[in-house]
Amino acid sequence: MALPAYATTAERVWHHAFRVICGLIFFFLIAPIIVIIPLAFNAEPYFTFTREMLTFDPAGYSMRWFDNLVTSSEWTSSIANSFIISISSTILATALGTLAALGLNRRNMPARAVITAVLISPMIVPLIITAAALFSFFARVGLSQTFPGIILSHVVLGTPFVVLTVTASLAGFDETLIRASQSLGANQSRTFFKVILPLLLPGVISGALFAFVTSLDEVVIVNFMAGPEQTPMTVRMFSGLREEISPTILALASLLVALSIILLTTLELIRRRNERLRGMSPG
Amino acid sequence: MKRFLLMTGSVAALAVTGAVAQDQQLTIVSWGGAYSNSQQKAYHEPYEEKTGVEILNEDKSANALAGIRAQVEAGNVTWDVVDMLQADAQRACDEGLILEIDHNEWLEPAPDGTPATEDFIEGTLGPCFIPQILYATMFAYNTEAFDGEGPKTVEDVWDLEKFPGTRSLQKIPQKNLEWALLADGVEVDQVYEVLATREGQDRAFAKLDEIKDNVIWWTEGAQPPQMLADQEAAIATAYNGRIFNAQVNEDQPFKIMWDHQMFETDGWVVPVDTGNLDLIKDYIRFATDTQRLADQAKYISYGPARKSSAPLVGMLEGTDIDMKPHMPTNPENLETAIPFDVQFWADYGDALEERFNAWVAG
Amino acid sequence: MASSTERRGTAAPILAADGTPLKQALRRSQSIERRRALALVAPLLLFILIVFVVPIIAMIWRSVYNPEIREFLPQTASALQDWDGTEVPPEPVFQAMAADMIVGVENRTIGRAAARINREIPGARSTMMRTARQVDEWSAPYREKFIEADEDWTNLEFWRILKRETRLLTPTYYLLALDYEYNAEGEIAPRPEVYQVYKGLFFRTAWMSLLITGLCVLLAYPVSYLLATQPTRTANLLLILVLLPFWTSLLVRTSAWIVLLQQQGVLNDLLVAAGLVDDNGRLRMIYNRTGTIIAMTHILLPFMILPLYSVMKTIPPSYLRAAKSLGAHPFRAWWRVYFPLTLPGLAAGCILVFILAIGYYITPALVGGETGIFISNLIAQNMQGSSAQLKLAAALATILLVAVLLIYWAFNKLVGVDKLKFG
After folding, report:
1. ipTM value
2. How far apart (Å, rounded) are the C-alpha atoms in residues A87 and A82?
3. Is the entire prediction scored with pTM above 0.80?
4. What distance separates the 2 farthest-apart alpha carbons in chain A?
5. pLDDT tens for residues B16-64?
6. Which of residues 155-194 of B touch C (CB under 8 A)?
7. B2-133+266-329, superfamily in CATH?
8. Which residue of chain B has the CA closest to A139?
9. What is the SS3 string spanning B144-193?
């Protein structure tokens, strides 16, 4: 939106003011996330910049909170628990969600709207309600305070994302490709693995990433459901934030920011590859 | 697919090994922080060393009653031993959620042979409850928050002009309503009588209204020392052990105001239908003997519930700080103390908590 | 002949290759297709039904199911059915109560009935427990002995509540959830003002969510417009600034706001350093309503930007130019031409943000203090703590669920849930 030569003064002023406003909003979005990273290297147990930090005195910085994170068994075991839970639930959610999306995309799917609404509902229902319902249910069937119980509840939360992303990638799917493949003599399974799956994969992967992040990030359900052996890092962070905030939390938080940068990059690469595959121009 | 199978396999294996190891494990629910730490040092570590049993800590005592209720109702009790307040234990016992205890059968006698029922301080044993400690909740302040003298009485806490600054109070009606009435001039021995009436309750809430705008609330015992240290609050109610720890371990300039301290008992209960009762009994017998209760006082300034433990209380571990003057049971600290009325709160707790929560959120 | 074949043609069915009528063959193949489609969906559908829908229905059932008194005082419950509630119940009721108490003390269940009544009449618990401990030493007639032991046994309100709570299904918890209760006469009436909290919290949750949605619109609209009008490369770079917070853990973003906003935090330090604020007069921007609003607006903003941006991307910029070249004032051109075209994205974003906001729990719990909490926090509070009321929590959760589902339904009608896009 370059400014045309015939723009009036008012338009010019507005044009620049608009960019400043947008700049401020972008700053609002990103600054809080960036600010915690240097603070995680604070040598003092405070949550603000010390004089030494501002003058870039090396004495103001330290790795002690990261050391604390990797040496304390409480933190390492809870991080391990988090990954056990989110990797298992992602695998299950991706499998179930992809199958369901394939079914939903069939032309003859009966009651599609209702079934879609039911499958998506865990994403819409507030977490505290899901937690209240699952907490009592799992306690009754003996699954509370167990890994399977927590994993199953995270599968519930993760599947809607897989269903949505896979459905979306199927929606842009050119059905003639299947017929072309079949008319060229490929059988059904060959068609699936050589034609459908490669085109589906980006949707599956981004759905899986959503499911993974949802599970890794989840606090409410695990807060009610996890026993001492399953405590994931989010529960430790949550109680840490409520009780005695230690900068160790900021160290973990900066690692999680790094993780989200990696995820974001992965997704972007997938998107580009996908567009290339489909013969669309990037963008 | 292979990876998927591997993953579910490992999850299943985890669940199975968890079940097998259960016999040699005890899940103990407590309060976390400095308090759990003192139990870890005085009870858990020596017990693990002696027997090889693995002890799992869960910091859920703040929600112990709701937790036990939910587990018993669902028929799936995973907690073995729970650290609980006496008032909550009374209710859990009435509701049949925790085991009734024959104290002389379960507990070690004093070293001189005095049976347990006579060794524990009068009024602390409950039909389902084994006390460990007497602790105090009282006001404390950061001396740096005031130019001159700090507050000395509960009335001073309400005096916002003489002692300006934020107050930090626990987000429960218990004790706050009692202090409000005391600050309003009610006599110590009349507090609960007044609080049982509608007018008395109105009066207590009206008194709390006077300082409400200057109050921030805490929910976990670790918060008030932190709030005082950060000067987010000038005066805070707190458990005496937490303040003591901040004073000696972190060198914080805190001062405890013993005026109208409220003391109560905290101890063990055992949920019904829980795991290995023999193991649980063995642990409790060990953890509540005279020496162990005295040992706990090496790490935190709470008074042991056994009379025979009192003479054994010595110095803070690794220092030459005498623990006795820091105990809530020290006669000097007891002068204007109020015993927390467990019966009153078992009866009026529900109604007053509802009103309190509505008042806080309003 | 020709005419007869023609007639036969319309009457006799067209046959498929294997000789079955085509219609039937089609129907069969379609039903096979349908079954195949269903078979693919079935695993997830069954899973969601069993692990999600059934537990929620069980929770709703718990919010009205009220078996305590019938279960723990069965004889008293049936003896009370004939009582008219005008005077202290007759001997048979007391006799039934004595029998129930003896069983209840034996099974240790009497305390649960007592706890239920104590919620309505503080002190009833003690009365019942004290009497229950003595009752096995008494013999008929019981009425005088009960009353002699404790004057409270003549309290008509106690017996009325007991009778009321013998109903297996009760609206009690929904009344409480809306700040109503049964008064002494058994009529539905508002609770005393000092106990009212939930209705206010529902309203607060709704208006704060609206406010947050509004703030998100204000902030998202210009940014999305900028993104939509930039060349692809620039837009993709700027989009990272939106997607990074979107992909960052909720707890991380909430802790970032705690770090920024607290009294000893970064923002206050900056203000003090700039001399705008006195060191003793540091601003209280967190642990109150302000904290919740700032943090939640930040957390939910990407959910508004992404749908808006994806709609704006499809609007050709030539529309605006055409309107302006036809003589419309820039604002008028924007308002009459551009804005209406963005409405679908705006609607999607608003409903998404609002639905997410009214169910928020973690952020208000961490930064909301007392004045910034939402109804979810009270649901959680009723699931924990020594005065936990699981049934009240279930009733509150059901009300919130109904509200959310209504909005979800409207959203589905207006926009279509399959239009939701992420990333």
Report:
1. 0.91
2. 8
3. yes
4. 73
5. 444 444 458 999 999 988 899 999 999 999 999 999 999 999 888 988 9
6. 171
7. Periplasmic binding protein-like II (3.40.190.10)
8. B74
9. HHCCCCCCCCHHHHHCCCCCCCCEEEECCCCCHHHHHHHHCCCCHHHHHH
